[in-house]
Design goal:
Chain A is mainly alpha-helical. In chain A, 67% of the residues lie in helices and 4% in strands. Classes of the chains: A mainly alpha, B mainly alpha, C alpha/beta.
């Protein structure tokens, strides 16, 4: 025993220290996720100080508050408080008698009361320093009322983009994302699965097929912005007559038509996730036991019959899981779409593949880049919407994966 | 003969009747099969077309660019200022290297530590909880990380180091957040490599009286080193190509500086900013971002190829 | 630290008590002279007492009482799935690497229960080394394979000498002396296994556990390993699990026959000197097994 130093104490101490370091790193990773989410929640909710042009209480007629006033009285208030020109324009858009009471009430709030957010506080401060905030409002914004606001509301989801943060919504962006992803799926799914079947079931081990395989692996590592440039050069520019919809007569004015459309964006994202879909689908196909193929060939089936009747049904949930994960990557992609040319400001719903577009991540990017605090708030609310979309997709993938694991 | 044919039992005839059976065993042309195989091959070929498209388009515009700016100027000039006709990639490249280096300083030690913890220390139950959490971290869109960098990391750095030291836009904050983004990638690839080390090797080490740490660091880690190095290289490539975080948090405007707390625009950040505006197709601005893109493409492609080589070349063959 | 001392003290006492005159091989000579008394004397390297081994709630090995004679080769034989390997691994707490495995009962090493809460498994394995079924050299050089274990255990002597001595001890020195810097994986299967043995003896354990050490090898390599085991038994206590009854008969001094109980738990059916067990077994099941009627 004397030949060996008694070093076990030191060795164990080193072991403990390093185990704690490894554990701390893992905790750090999880902490980063928690902080990231809290940071978003912090901006998506919180107190806001609101100042009105006219106090709603002053608008009461015979001490009936405006919430309860009749339609006719609300029109009267409008007439008294907005310019004659605006009043006439509103009336010519739609006569007052045809408008619902709620619509007129909203107009009164928007045009007469005109509430404006003058200051916002994050959720953390709103929860723990309420008294200070109230004092601050009383001192700095004497005319303002303090209210707790969730920036993520039903209205936020259903109203289109607006230059004012507290009236802006993500309707256009959600629809834009939906259209874009639909194109992406239609483009990338059949091609990706087809390529995977070719590589796994048909391709012999020759030079060409090895090049294809290596190439796919390399494409998966190309930065997404490069795909954006490819999309810009090919879909937006070279294929402009097609992607602008001009050759289909889908646009009214061919002179202003451009290739910066949903179909260009969708196909760009399609190219981006194609390698991911192929690789995931290959994995799923590889997992189908070979005995199944042999059984099928043994019955005199052709190659395609074997693939279609035996391989694909057994691989399909794996393929779908992989595809969903690839698509959730596409949903969150921003850089390539900026390059392809997402519109910075559109307020109308996209009508089809040849519409101009914006998507949820693009909207988040633009709002984040604005210096005003309220835009940070709505960016956070939009992030929550985006994360909810991704979460539901991933949940779907997990459900599929569990079904898949049970089967094999 | 004729007699025998009339005799067969009824059951045999019905089965036979369902098939069109001949004794002809020669190869038949199956048109459907050929068509399907061709279509599938074309689907596989799209990937080649994509690569060709990338190289062709990037090169085409780069050639236009290089007809106006010499390659030497592109790589040596210390200023990037299109208005003044200065096209030196150094400030952009420098900013990219700064953010990537910062990111690596965060992601490599963290990612590797997590990988070791998950593969060598955590109970199966713990890692079945931890791994999906890290996957969530990897699945969050980069634009959200950009928001995080700008609204959390930058204020944090400013409150720790002082507002006069750290600018609102800076490469340090972007780099750290890229690092956090990449941690799950490093950890999952490294963990795969560590888990692939045969159990027998761990047993041998324990059998010699090694502690857990010694087994993990001196036996398992060296045996998995090729996979880990590959993970690192892929991570570097990812950090270099990362766009939205730097576009949001690192600042606009090329700036040749080695101070990580000052704003500086990276290659990807520049591409996004220039192409986000209304860009006319035949301007030198348009051409220049393709030249940057081509350079970026070659850097990341080489890194990816190197990482694949590393895996293949240095993989230990067991049994 | 504390354990280190305890073990050291025990060794000292033992040596003095066992044979004060012959300090070189005190125990082996002692055992030689008392051969007839093996079942009753207390010169055991290791002893299992009422040992039950579980995987979660599945009982793999039931109530084993087994005393292993020092500096002898003890073979563990029995049909597949009777818990031979599990039993072997219980001797140096190797089972603990399977998270679901746990043990009840005692394994006494120098009078100390290695399953006591304050015993360090690292310290146990350092003294009770192991050679595995499949050769598993580290993906390092041959030299490093041997030196590594000694180095982490704080070996103070001349490392080159230790490596040479260990490789000689494992009868592989002549084959590898010119290529010590080559990877351990470059050797043939039989050489790899002897390298693994060299690696084990380099840390100077008391006991070497061998889990079917020759099952992955060809007959010639197997023969070399068996010869080596004989050599090693002069200095080390060896416990070997084998599936091969001829091998057990050829190499071992003692044989423990394990069998499957009714509830699929392994039980120690019979334990005796190898000669006796193979020629005149006490139990019918033992005889059935060694004559090839089952297993």
């Amino acid at each position: 025993m004397s030949e060996f130093k008694a070093n076990l104490d030191i060795r164990h101490r080193a072991g403990h220290i390093w185990r704690n370091i490894f554990r701390a790193s893992t905790v750090f990773g999880i902490l980063a996720l928690i902080v990231l989410l809290l940071n978003i929640a912090n901006s998506a909710f919180g107190y806001v100080a609101i100042e009105n042009d006219i106090n709603p209480a002053d608008l009461a007629i015979n001490s009936i508050p405006i919430e309860q006033l009749h339609q006719v009285d609300l029109v009267w208030i409008l007439e008294q408080n907005v310019s004659a020109g605006l009043f006439r324009r509103l009336e010519s858009e739609m006569p007052w008698e045809e408008r619902a009471r709620e619509e007129i009430y909203d107009l009164v709030v928007e045009r007469v009361v005109n509430p404006q957010v003058v200051h916002t506080w994050p959720l953390g401060g709103s929860l723990f320093h309420r008294a200070e905030i109230q004092a601050e409002v009383a001192a700095k914004f004497p005319g303002a009322t303090l209210e707790f606001r969730s920036w993520l509301t039903g209205d936020f989801l259903t109203t289109p983009q607006s230059p004012e943060a507290d009236r802006a919504g993500v309707r256009t962006a959600i629809l834009g994302s939906g259209w874009t992803i639909a194109i992406t799926i239609l483009f990338a799914f059949p091609l990706g699965v087809g390529a995977a079947i070719y590589l796994e079931e048909y391709a012999s081990d020759n030079r060409l097929n090895r090049v294809i395989q290596t190439n796919i692996n390399n494409l998966a590592g190309v930065p997404s912005i490069i795909y954006g440039m490819l999309g810009l050069a090919i879909f937006v520019r070279a294929l402009e007559p097609f992607t602008s919809g001009a050759i289909f007569g889908a646009v009214d004015d061919t002179a202003t038509a451009s290739g910066r459309t949903i179909i260009s964006a969708g196909m760009t994202l399609g190219l981006l996730i194609l390698p991911l879909i192929i690789i995931n689908a290959q994995e799923a196909i590889k997992a189908v036991p070979n005995s199944l193929r042999q059984a099928s060939y043994g019955m005199g089936a052709t190659r395609w019959q074997t693939v279609w009747h035996h391989v694909l049904p057994n691989a399909i949930s794996g393929i779908l899981t992989g595809t969903i994960l690839a698509i959730s990557r596409a949903i969150g992609e921003t850089a390539p779409l900026v390059v392809v040319g997402a519109s910075t400001f559109i307020t109308f719903d996209p009508e089809g593949p040849f519409s101009k577009f914006t998507t949820l991540p693009i909207q988040i990017y633009q709002w984040t880049a604005r210096p005003q605090a309220e835009f940070r708030n709505i960016a956070a609310a939009a992030i929550l919407v985006l994360l909810a979309m991704l979460l539901s997709m991933n949940a779907a993938a997990v459900v599929l994966r569990n079904r898949y694991n049970r089967k094999i | 003969m004729t007699q025998q044919i009339e005799i067969p039992s009824p059951s045999t005839t019905t089965i036979e009747a369902g098939y069109n059976r001949t004794n002809d065993l020669r190869k038949r042309r199956r048109l459907g099969e050929t068509v399907i195989q061709t279509l599938l091959f074309l689907a596989g070929g799209i990937s080649i077309l994509t690569t060709v498209g990338i190289v062709y388009e990037l090169s085409k515009e780069s050639v236009h660019f290089l007809s106006q700016v010499s390659l030497i100027e592109f790589f040596t000039h210390a200023k990037w200022n299109p208005q003044l006709g200065n096209f030196g990639i150094l400030p952009l490249l420098n900013a990219t290297l700064m953010t990537s280096t910062t990111a690596m300083l965060v992601a490599l030690p963290m990612g590797l530590s997590i990988a070791i913890y998950l593969s060598e220390y955590a109970t199966p139950k713990a890692s079945s909880i931890l791994k999906p959490i890290l996957e969530v971290l990897a699945g969050i869109p980069t634009v959200v990380y950009g928001y995080f960098a700008l609204t959390f990391m930058t204020p944090l750095l400013r409150s720790v180091l002082g507002k006069d030291v750290v600018e609102i836009y800076n490469t340090a904050s972007a780099g750290i957040v890229i690092g956090i983004l990449i941690i799950p990638m490093v950890s999952s690839m490294s963990e795969d490599a560590l888990s692939a080390v045969p159990r027998a090797l761990r047993e041998a080490s324990y059998g010699l009286g090694a502690t857990k740490l010694e087994t993990a660091i001196k036996v398992v880690l060296p045996a998995a080193i090729s996979g880990i190095v590959a993970a690192f290289i892929v991570a570097i490539s990812r950090a270099i190509g990362e766009t939205m975080i730097v576009a949001i948090a690192a600042g606009a405007g090329p700036n040749l500086t080695f101070n990580p707390f000052l704003p500086a625009e990276t290659m990807t950040g520049h591409i996004v900013r220039i192409s986000g505006g209304d860009l006319s197709y035949n301007s030198i601005d348009y051409n220049s971002i393709f030249a940057i893109g081509l350079f970026l493409f070659f850097i990341t492609l080489s890194l990816n190829i190197i990482s694949q080589r590393v895996v293949r070349r240095f993989r230990e063959v067991y049994e | 630290m504390r354990i280190e001392r305890i073990f050291a003290d025990k060794n000292k006492k033992r040596k003095i008590r066992v044979d004060p005159l012959n300090l070189c091989h005190p125990r082996s000579n002692h055992a030689q002279s008392k051969r007839e008394l093996i079942m009753t004397n207390n010169n055991y390297a290791i002893e299992a007492r009422g040992l039950n081994i579980y995987y979660d709630d599945f009982l793999a090995v039931r109530d084993v009482n087994l005393k292993i004679e020092a500096r002898k080769i003890t073979a563990i034989i029995g049909p597949s799935g009777c818990g031979k390997s599990t039993m072997l691994r219980a001797f140096n707490r190797m089972n603990e690497l399977v998270p679901s495995a746990w043990a009840k009962g005692e394994v006494l090493y120098h009078g100390e229960n290695i399953y006591a809460p304050d015993v360090d498994p690292v310290e146990v394995r350092r003294r009770i080394g192991m050679v595995f079924q499949k050769p598993n050299p580290f993906p390092k050089s041959i030299y490093e394979n041997v030196a590594w274990g000694a180095r982490i255990n704080g070996y103070r002597g001349n490392m080159d000498e230790l490596v040479e001595q260990s490789l000689r001890g494992a009868a592989i020195w002549d084959e590898v002396k010119d290529k010590l810097d080559q990877s351990g994986l470059s050797l043939s299967g039989g050489q790899q296994q002897r390298l693994c043995i060299a690696r084990t003896i380099a840390i100077k354990p008391d006991i070497i556990l061998m889990d079917e050490p020759a099952s992955a090898l060809d007959p010639i390599a197997t023969l070399k390993i068996e010869e080596l085991m004989h050599e090693l038994s002069k200095e080390f206590t060896i416990i070997v699990v084998t599936h091969n009854m001829q091998q057990a008969a050829r190499v071992s001094d003692f044989t423990a026959f394990f069998n499957l109980g009714e509830d699929r738990a392994g039980v120690l059916e019979e334990y005796d000197k190898t000669n006796k067990l193979f020629t005149n077994p006490a139990k019918q099941t033992t005889e059935d097994y060694i004559t090839g009627r089952f297993g």
